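Hi support team,

I'm filing this because I wasn't sure whether my run with flavin-adenine dinucleotide finished correctly. The job status page said complete, but I'd like someone to confirm that the output block is well-formed before I use it downstream. Pasting the exact inputs I used:
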Amino acid sequence: MKNIIVCLMPGATFDKPTAGLLAAARGLQPQLTIIVPGIVSDDTTAALAGQADNVICASDDGLDEYQPEIVLGVLQSVCSDLNPDIVLLSNDTYSQEIAPRLAGRLGGVSAGDAQSLSLDGDNLRITRSVYGGKAIATVELRATPAVVWVRAHSFAGLDAKDAPGTIEQRSITVEGDAAKHLGATNIVERHAESSGEVRLEDAAVIVSGGRGLGGPEPFEQLKDLADAMKAQQAASRAACDAGWVPPHWQVGQTGKKVAPELYVAIAISGASQHLMGIADAKVITAINTDADAPIFKHCQFGLVEDYKAVVGPLTEKLKTLLS
Ligand SMILES: Cc1cc2nc3c(=O)[nH]c(=O)nc-3n(C[C@H](O)[C@H](O)[C@H](O)COP(=O)(O)OP(=O)(O)OC[C@H]3O[C@@H](n4cnc5c(N)ncnc54)[C@H](O)[C@@H]3O)c2cc1C
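And here is everything the job wrote out:
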C-alpha cells in the first residue's frame, strides 16, 4: 500500500476541483490522508473526512490567507512527519506554484497537469497533454515522494466512503529547515474577483470571446448574451493580452482549464493552446467567419457567420426562451 497525501490550499472548500482531486487519489487506492493548511469550515472538514482516512487541519498564525512560504513550511512540516510516497495537489495557481517547491524540499520529484494517474509497480505514472494538446505523454516518477498537481476537473467526484475518516487539528510552528525561506516572498496585494462571480473553473456555461471581436466594446454585448444564459465570461489569450478584458478571464494552456457543460467560443480561432483549456468541456459551440478555423474541428455545433449578425438576435431569443 502507498502512503498517499492530498494537499489542499488555505480557504479550501469541498468544491468540484477538490472532489475531482480526491477522486483521482482514491482511484489509486482508497486509503489516503488530506492536509488542509489554515482554517476550514466544519462542513468542509466533514465532507473531506467522508473521502479519506484522516484529515489533518494544520493551522499556523499566518495562514488566514495564502502566503506561499508559510503554506510551504506547513506542508513540508506535516509531510516530513508522514513520509509520503505520493503527494497530490490540484491545478489552481497556488497548488501549481507549491508542488515543485514542495517536492524539492522533501527530496522528491514533481510533475504537473496530470490527466490520469496509475501505479506501475512502485512508480506513479501520469499522462498529460503535450505540444499544445497534439500528443499525450506518459511520465513515470521513479523517486519518492512523487509530488504531482492534477487536472482536477478531469475526474468525476466519488460518493463518500461508508465510514468517515478521523479529523485531527495540528497547530504548526514553522521552524528549522521549513522556516529558512519564510519572508522570501510575500503576497503584498490582492484583487478579489467581483463578488457573485462564479469561478471559471466551476462555471457550467461559459461565453468566451477572441481577437476577432476587434476590441473591448463587443465584450459588453457578449455580457448580455452571458447574462441571458446565466453564463460566465471568458476570453482567449489574444483578447486578454490586448487588455480588452482582465487577465484572469484567459482560458487555455497558460490560462484557466475549464470544464463547463457548454462553452461558446465567439471569434476565437481555436489555437491548440486555447483548446488545451477547454479539453474537458462537454459541448463546444463556435461562431466564426472563417469556415476553416480550427475551432470548427473541435466543436459539436458551429456557425460560420459574423458575430455582429448573430449575438444580438441570439441574446433576444434566449431571453424569451429562458425567462
Ligand atoms: C506558449 C503559448 C501559450 C499560449 N497560451 C494560450 C492560452 O492559454 N490561451 C489562449 O487562448 N491562447 C494561448 N496562446 C496563444 C494562441 O496560440 C493564439 O494566439 C490565441 O489563442 C489566438 O486567440 P484568438 O483565437 O482570439 O485570435 P485569432 O487566432 O486571431 O482568431 C480570431 C478569430 O476570429 C475570427 N473572426 C474575425 N472576425 C470575426 C467576426 N466578425 N465574427 C466572428 N469571427 C470573427 C477569425 O476568423 C479568427 O478565427 C498561447 C501561445 C503560446 C505560444
